[in-house]
Amino acid sequence: MTAPLLVFGWGNPSRGDDALGPMFVEQLRRIVGDGCEGRVEFLDDFQLQVEHALDLAGRERVLFVDASLDCAAPFEATVLRAARDASFTTHAMSPESVLQVFRDLHHAAPPPCTLLAIRGVHFELGEPAGPSALAHLALALEWGRRWVDSDPRPGGVARLPTSGFLPDEALSIA
Questions:
Q1: I need a surface site. Which of 22, 68, 89, 140 has the fewest CB within 10 A?
Q2: CA proximity to 112, closest of 55, 160, 62
Q3: How many CB atoms lie within 10 A of CB 149?
């Protein structure tokens, strides 16, 4: 049976802050622990590829996680929409393109998907993730824990903020 939630991080653990996606997956798996057994599946890879569209089948929600030079610190969360883009024909695809492959394969809308972009700074080969990236990761993990526990249906738990927050801030945003 397919777990209703999927947390999918990607990046290269050998390229400094690019490791944030896989690190998020590994650490969130430990944080949510056995209580989410069968409810959440955790996947990571070096990059998104066309085959990852198959991982979306049967899901209620999907969280994509990656390091970013372009997002505000410490992180940003955005709703994803299926879209065919230039990455569609490359080996490394965008999440939007993966959603479009799902749409093309299944002739149906993909499950609701969110991109959690964690601010990275240094992406040098052979370097570990830097201190500022690790601080951003810690805040993103708190957001991720809340994402796993949230219920986006009407009457469910309030929506999560879409950008970095202090750990004691409320879950909802205006």
A1: 89
A2: 62
A3: 13
Query: Angle, nearest 10°, between helix axes 20-32 and 131-149?
Result: 50
Paired sense of beta strands 113-119 and 75-79, if any? antiparallel
Given the structure tokens 């993103």, which residue do they identify? 140
Note the Cα 95 to chain centre separation in Å: 10
Compute the distance between CA of residue 139 and CA of residue 57 in angstroms, rounded to an integer.
29
Q: What is the mean pLDDT of the chain?
A: 86
CA distance 39 to 19: 25
What pLDDT, in 10s, does the model give residues 68-103?
A: 999 999 999 999 999 987 655 555 789 999 999 999
| Token reading at 80 | 């994803």
In this prediction, residue 156 carries a pLDDT of 44
Classify the C-alpha dihedral 61-68-9-22 as positive or negative: negative
Sign of CA dihedral 52, 36, 5, 174: negative
Which residues, in sequence order, are bridge partners of residue 67? 118
Q: What is the pTM assigned to this prediction?
A: 0.86
The β-bridge partners of 102 are none
- pLDDT tens for residues 115-125? 999 999 999 99
Place of tokens 């809340």: 146
